[in-house]
Prior knowledge:
The protein is α/β, with parallel strands linked by helices and 695 residues long.
Amino acid sequence: MPATKRKPASPATTKASASENKLAKLGLRSDMDLVLHLPLRYEDETKIVPIRQAAFIAGSPAQVEGVVTECDIQYRPRRQLVVTIADDSGTLVMRFLNFYGSQTKQLAVGTRVRARGEVRHGFFGAEMVHPAYKAVDEGDPLPTALTPVYPAGEGLSQTYLRKAIANALKRVDWRDTLSPALLEQLKLAPFEASVKLLHNPPPDIDENALMERSHPAWTRMKFDELLAQQLSLKRAQEARRAKGAAALPVVGDLSGAFAAHLPFQLTGAQQRVLQEIRADLRQSFPMQRLLQGDVGSGKTVVAALAAAQAIDSGFQAALMAPTEILAEQHFRKIAQWMEPLGVKVAWLSGSLRKKEKTEAQAMIESGAAQLVIGTHALIQEGVEFAKLGLVIVDEQHRFGVGQRLALRNKGLEGDNLFHQQTVPHQLMMSATPIPRTLAMTYYADLEVSVIDELPPGRTPIVTRVVDQNRRDEVIERVHAAAQEGRQVYWVCPLIEESEALQLQTATETHATLAAALPDLQVGLVHGRMKPAEKQIVMDGFSRGEVHVLVATTVIEVGVDVPNASLMVIEHAERFGLSQLHQLRGRVGRGSAASVCLLLYQSPLGPVARQRLMTMRETTDGFEIARRDLEIRGPGEFLGARQSGQAMLRFADLQTDQWLVEKARDVAHGLLRDDPATVEAHLARWLGGREEFLKV
């Protein structure tokens, strides 16, 4: 039987599916997705201005209507389409520098055109460059609402989006997910009225309130969005608590000996945070705690004491860090504390030789290694734990969600009953403090502990902002510090010359300083060196044999050399605030007065100036994080969290903090009393994308 030929798709069907694919790329798959795709801004097409009058409001958008009197392609100074339209009051030129051949037909002489754009005065009088336009008949009615302008992807016209959204508005289920009593209590506008107003605002609306998103219709959208996020995160937290975890109740001989052998006393803040973690580890559901502490506040020792509790309870612990330098720093420090107490600490990184790696994996799988420290190598195939009870992730925002999950899921591997029923406890550490509002929204599913006290004996760091022209004075300062027996970091933003940025590079700076300071040992560390080469230089610096360490940002976290008391950051204007704060935290770890010099290249832009002034004014990590959030906004602040979660589209954490708190309280009540509303609200706002919020 001959095969039946498939009927080719009609051009209209193909075009529709192509447009649907483009909508899907914007995340617009359902009618409700389209309805919640709200305008970026609005254009007022509700009135026509006479051309003569439009000529006097240069610099502002205006809409005119006229008949085409000339339509020419001109070639000087470049190829362009020049169209003249006229009404009873005067003439205006529409100039198109990029155009299609078909536009000459659309704009043929005699066509009546409605054009909207910014009027400016050209050589031949009033003109609009690339105005929005359409052909109309005389007397065609004007819109009665402001025209929405939507966020659009490549190949999606505003006309197509407006039509798709208008159709979706007719089809969706408008039932309000919030009860009338709740709306009354919160003083919120109804959902349907709010959405329809935002898509088609009347011309007499308060345009400032609309554009600044302070209108009651916007308030309703922001609240609903925040509520969906809070519900999803809190539900993820409940789901986690429903899972089993092995209780780690024993604070035994190892924990006691470890605390007794420490050469320093824990601060009050460290003791408080340790008690919070210990209480979590005793539970039979998995801990998910974020340990925040400023640079140098002593998070590592708290993490090591948590690991000791896991080991005392008969389980393994694993610590994963984002860079080899940081992971090795943790390994050396913690092994120095724990191995004399009989704990076997294993080291695993990508740079190990095959034989060393195989030996480490065998120890991990047999359970002989009670504590495992390493980089991403911990989550690779072939690494299996005998009995993983606690996972510690340092600088957790530097890992993607998939990587953090992969390490946690190492506790689910294997055949015995223990693995199948439980997941490990998880402790995440961050030296980048999260401002409170951000923690309430993006970390609502985590318990948060804060070490808000620095160990005694830490000296405050003085920060100075210095123009690049004074490099010679800075080099003299470096020389003087080294002669006094102090060590110096000199940090550069690039490894190799970049013509675009023309920055001093690490290799060039190393050569310059080595030549200028022949009596000093100047070392160089950057990300392209082999780990073994890096370690030789770092060891020399730790022992005091290297006086000046020129480095890229590989030394941003974890490097602990108490004798280093001077930090020079080259082209400081190129760094973000949290990175500058992290780098500065490498000094001030001993008893000597410490100084951080921020070298900058003039002229400074307003954002760079704001960052450097913040660094000069405060060393408080939480204040720096708050200002960083103000400067960058939450999207960029959390960018490295790589969570896959949708950032807030409508709410603004700086202006809408009051709404965050209301949404959190309402979410708590709904989860307790009204599961049907929770389901309906999440279906409307997340539409099956809730899994993105669950780490």
